[in-house]
Amino acid sequence: MNLASCYIENNTSALDQTYTYQFKNEPVEIGKRVLVNFNYRECVAFVDSIEMNSSKTFPYEIKPILSVLDEQPILNAEMIDLAKWISKTSISTVISALQAMVPPALKPKSNDIKIKMEKWVRPLDDHTKTPKQAMLYERLIKEGEMKRSEWLKLSSLSKKLEEMGCVEIFEKEKRTYEEVIEKKPCHIVLNEEQKHAVERILHSSKDVIALKGVTGSGKTEVYLHAAEAVLKQGREVLILVPEISLTPLMVKRVQERFGNDVAIYHSGLSAQQKYEQYQSVRGKEKRIVVGTRSAVFMPFSDLGLIILDEEHDLSYKQDQNCRYHARDVALHRAKTHHARVVLASATPSLDTMARALKKVYELVEIKHRVNQSLPHVKLINMNEVIRKKQSYILSDEMITEMRKTLDRKQQIILLLNRRGYQPILRCSQCGKVLMCPHCDKPLVLHKEKNTLNCHLCGTVLKRIYECPQCHGKLSGSGFGTQMLEEKVAQLFPDARLIRMDADTTTRKNAHETLLKAFENHEADILLGTQMISKGLDFENVTLVGILQGDAMLARSDYRSAELTFDLLTQASGRSGRGNTNGKVLIQVYDEDHYAIQCALKQDYDSFFRHEMQYRHLAGYPPYTYLCALTFISKDESGSDEANHVMKLLKEKDFKVLGVSELLKIQDEKRYRICVKSKSLELLQKEIYDVYQHHRTSKSRVKLHIDMNPLTLDD
Ligand code: ADP
Ligand code: ZN
User: Fold this and answer.
1) Does ligand 1 have an atom closer than 6 angstroms to the CB of 545?
2) Taking CA atoms, which of 88, 183, 258, 549 is between 20 and 30 Å from 3?
3) Structurally, how many domains does the chain consist of?
């Protein structure tokens, strides 16, 4: 009997193990998908291992594999090992790791997304033909093969030749036609700091380089030069950017240098597009990939260099299902491929910087901007602004500076990290705040469609004007991007505005379209949430205004100072990237906080020292490793289980914080404990045991495990 161990498509932790099926002569191979019967249902499963002619006996009946879905294995040994490694280290099911890794068209679950095929023709047999038929046939021989649709268009005789059996019709995977991309000659001569960086990336004795370069220091140029050298060795290159809004700019620069050798991979592509890009890397047609988080899973065969641009960015971590961090995956894959890794940022994560200072990574710095000095940054104290009875949205100073910039025909970026119109609606009679009916979260007024939205669970309700309890009038407080847009339009009726936030970028390619319009100076002011704060490089922007610059400090999260410093520094870096000096105005209430003061001076090193002291005292990463376990239930049972697990872990000498009751989401209560350890391996092993125990215990409580959580929000 031939046996195959398979992972079933279902992402339920209870099924996170292999199941054995038998087969006879079918072409079952490791890494292929098969159809099997599981629990009286047909399911897709991944073949994990095979045993031919097994003499094993089982106390139960071994069911047969119903059919084999793939002609070629879609996963190689590296990918299967990687899925298991992710499952073990980020404590998630193997199938959820596989689902994160392969493009949607190949996902175990989605065997109904058909890979698009199209008909092609090629010459088959030399029957006797009329001269006209022969001419047509000659043409086909010359082409080798043709799309059938084009072949039929050639002549009315095409069909006849098919009927005579002169041509063979066959199927090929559909490929979208690609335009030839012209390479642009590169006239840039690297400066000394950049040259040094490229040299270290290629020749350091360490495999990982922490590249710390201020915004506008020409890091991207460094990537392109290092990439070129690695491609020349015949090896592959991966360039990761944190957000989909940054892909168009990076893609453009990489394509200008390397033409059609570039594959693009991000969540904005259709299933078919993703599949084609994936295949083009697997088939070694393309050797450079530019993409977001999930591009870290592209099927490379000889990866030589991985670059994480803005490595500190939180978007590199997937925050649901399989909570992997692209940086960890990149480091792991680099080991397998003997590739080099560049972790680049103007504001490196504390974890990366700490490792660089410990000489685990090599630290390379670029301290100067390419053409000009850093922008001039100034704080505006909003307490005083309000005392002077100016607007709490835009201070007089901000307005004056905006006017001057517009008069000079230069552009402005306004950052406000809060979407919607007004974040809080309160009853003027009873004082109650209007909450989401399913979550412990205030509803946000969205004026465009006159709705009340929950930003946690996505509930959208029709706007009401009276308190549902006492019928008092509702009044709003605070402001989001929609209100800011309204205010700016009133103040500057002639200025052209673009708003960019989660609500204006739902449509496909919206990011690209909006940014392109701003780049072409079709708008004077770009306003939006953090998605406009990083990586953007617009020469004509000379004023960046940041509103509520200290809002994030109010969060209870241990990383809130780091997030604030990053946001302010990154956003400031958008100003003055051309030949004119830039200005940055930051409106804050708490101007004395060290995160604000260090951002004001653009002083990463002081910030790092300050923040590391705090982390050391409080026992937070990078001094320890953390794991957050959230127990979710409709009733109190989550709390009981959390307390039980906490006791077990404390008995094993782990430091455990909790149990804290978090905000309710979608009618479910959430209880969290936080486990700390000096040893990541020990922590992973222990939490994996908790997970194994929980998943086989038939408990009704849901358990979310977040290893190395980036935020500990409530
Ligand atoms: P970063 O990625 O560090 O923010 P970029 O690589 O985007 O910086 O560089 C900023 C600008 O400077 C870009 O327009 C780039 O073309 C230009 N640039 C980079 N290096 C040089 C150089 N050595 N000489 C001239 N211009 C350069
Ligand atoms: Zn809600």
Assistant:
1) no
2) 88
3) 5
